[in-house]
């Protein structure tokens, strides 16, 4: 939940500040998701709104259940969506990789998604299997609430190149 008191925005009880340490405008408190979107805008990441927000061109519809969808990287299948989190500001998928990464799950921010095909029940990503494998290790569900872990995942995916043409 977002909260603005005395010009300080907090997310899940932790204070957040925009770049430069200035205060958030009062309208931030009246606009759900605005502050989180502002925090995600980096200009060099996977998504224009940061890795935690669906791109409009993906075909995502609010309330859409992606559990069980197959997840495809640019170079092959990663696994199937086991769980999804649609908390504003921290939207992500937990993907069961099967034997591909020794039976582990990976956390994938939704800003990495390039397409959702509801007919084929398939999600395509803007990254390779190796890039997903190299992301910060996902061990337990409690990490989905850990700001440090989520920050490291967000930073990792923001640094991936957008333009994949050669």
UniProtKB/TrEMBL annotation:
List, alphabetically, the GO terms of the cellular component aspect.
plasma membrane light-harvesting complex
InterPro entries according to UniProt: Bac_photo_RC_H_C, PRC_barrel-like_sf
What SUPFAM superfamilies does the annotation carry? Answer: PRC-barrel domain
Q: Name one GO biological process term.
A: photosynthesis, light reaction
| Domain of life of the organism encoding this protein | Bacteria
Name assigned to this protein: PRC-barrel domain-containing protein
User: Which species is the source of this protein?
Assistant: Streptomyces avermitilis (strain ATCC 31267 / DSM 46492 / JCM 5070 / NBRC 14893 / NCIMB 12804 / NRRL 8165 / MA-4680)
């Amino acid at each position: 939940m977002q909260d603005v008191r005395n010009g300080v925005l907090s997310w899940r009880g932790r204070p957040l500040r925009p770049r430069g340490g200035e205060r958030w405008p009062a309208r931030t408190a009246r606009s759900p998701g605005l502050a989180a979107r502002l925090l995600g805008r980096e200009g060099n990441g996977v998504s224009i709104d940061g890795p935690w927000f669906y791109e409009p061109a993906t075909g995502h519809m609010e309330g859409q259940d992606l559990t069980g969808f197959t997840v495809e990287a640019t170079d092959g299948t990663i696994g199937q969506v086991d769980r999804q989190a649609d908390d504003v500001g921290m939207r992500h998928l937990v993907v069961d990789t099967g034997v591909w990464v020794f039976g582990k799950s990976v956390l994938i921010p939704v800003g990495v998604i390039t397409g959702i095909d509801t007919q084929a029940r398939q999600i395509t990503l803007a990254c390779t299997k190796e890039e997903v494998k190299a992301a910060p290790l996902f061990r337990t569900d409690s990490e989905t609430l850990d700001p440090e872990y989520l920050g490291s995942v967000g930073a990792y995916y923001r640094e991936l190149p957008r333009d994949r043409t050669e």
